[in-house]
Amino acid sequence: MSRTIAALYDSRAEAEFARARLVSRLKARSPRIIAKDTLGALDALDIASAEKESYRDKLGGGGHLLV
Fold this sequence. Notes:
- By secondary structure, this protein is an alpha+beta fold.
- Helices cover 40% and strands 12% of the residues.
- It contains two helices and three strands, in the order βαβαβ.
């Protein structure tokens, strides 16, 4: 069973650091970072619409979402 985990970060550097740790320690497959310039990627996530809108607002303000 696969699961999706999302974490919101204030900077790209923080998100990149967390992604590197996920890959090296937990062998996570293909964690990606969604930012203002890639907001369309939110539509492909299997999460509630209200959560998508909340993430969209945070990303528009400069946040980075690690998925």
